[in-house]
Amino acid sequence: MKHIILLFIAGFISGKVSAQRIQICSAKDSLPVPFSTLIAKNSFITLGKTANDKGVIEFTGSEDDSSSYTIIAQAVGFDRYTKVVTGIELNHMRKIYLLPSKLNLSEVVITAQYAPTPVDQSVQKMQVIDKEKIQQMGSANMRDVLSNQLNVRLQQDNILGAGMSLQGISGENVKILMDGVPMIGRLNGNIDLSQINVNNVERVEFIEGPLSVQYGTNALAGTINIITKNSSKKKVTLGATTYYESIGTYNVNADANFHYKKHNLQLSGGRNYFDGWNPADAPFYFPQPHIADSTRYKQWKPKEQYFANLAYQYTIKNLNLGFKSAYFTEKIINRGYPRAPYSETSFDDYYYTTRIDNSIFLNGKIAKNWTVNTLSAYNYYNRVKKTVFKDLTTLDETLSGNSSDQDTSRFTLLMSRASFIHTKDSAKLNYEIGYDVNYESALGKRIDKQLQYMGDYAGFATLEYKPVSKLVIKPGVRYAYNTVYKTPLVPSLNLKWAMNDHHTVRASYARGF
Description:
It contains 5 helices and 31 strands. The protein is mainly beta and 513 residues long. The strands form 6 sheets. Strands 18, 19, 20, 21, 22, 23, 24, 25, 26, 27, 28, 29, 30 and 31 form a 14-stranded antiparallel β-sheet that branches. A hairpin with a 6-residue loop joins β5 and β6 (81-86). The longest helix has 13 residues, at 2-14. The termini are far apart.
């Protein structure tokens, strides 16, 4: 291919040369991809360049080059771009767009990990549901998010809400965390997934298999850690979304983020409204005045939710200090059938739920090979059932005189958790030690003496041993003192064997009660 080289030389001698600038960008958002590489080659010559921090590559070529080149552009986290062009076409290129790879190396998980870890390298079997997928599904709450998740079975009770089972094990053994804080308020053993809004959720880390050493015995089937948005590099970010569904769903929420130097403040809130539904309703249904006949009864109960969130974070060198607060309230209306013989009265039920969650966290590096994660929280859950006798003529309501028609359930949780992790990339042995303290109260008619308290004080430790690069052995143990019942020693063992680039074997064992 001597004539190509001579052509380049002739081009330079004759002055027919061109200064070329090509910018490599992401096809996802059109942003530049810094330090990406571009290679132009044929059977005789190879030209290679690295982009600057703005994704721009500069080189000089001949305007008369009609020979064929194979263009290869690549960057970490993106699929390789390959195209065959002539030298003339290459000289007229201005931008090349790279598609993000299906396995984005920047996607990491933190739940039960010693450090932020790529999903494919985690010891436990983990899945990540990111905010993009949540938005694509049009999800308003965690019930919608998990509706298409493998090994998850959802149950819907129109009064108690949406429950779940994982791998055939009931929801009592599925730990649900919000930024690492256990959620309280289980009814019939389940957290109502429809009460967990995802308007400010960054991602959901879904772990199949036991984590009873790290999070307690009710994490035997798996753990779901719902991680909310933490910070943004932009000084001010504002957003709002609305959602409408023809069955009578009207949702709206808004959020704001403020970033200044080491400070970050986030605010969000919204309202979800559902007008109820019957199988006989028209496909496109618009709310109508409620009339005093049998249509006032709804198989799917009308529901109204309000929620608000506040998050503040301050960065101190390698440490992050922050505070999060969330408020949620829900009202469910169960309108009864008009009573015989004149259909002028009915019994209606109202269910009021209030959640208040507050947490303080500190995490980051405290020494070269040491990381600390601390978390303290106070959670409040209150659910009130009220039954009224309603006059459908005057719309007057009178509280039912039957004491069993009225009920209040209240739960609180005061918790503190900390772990100290020693990690070194070149070390075969890394480890974690920590404590987990939970003090709970429960109030209700079905509680012995109507009010009970329970303290659970636990210490735990885990090891990560890598005898060879492709094998990870992770044993752990947890011991707890409980003020109500005796607790056994809880052991666990996790194994991961990366057989090759395409096959990985994972195994988990743990004990619970």
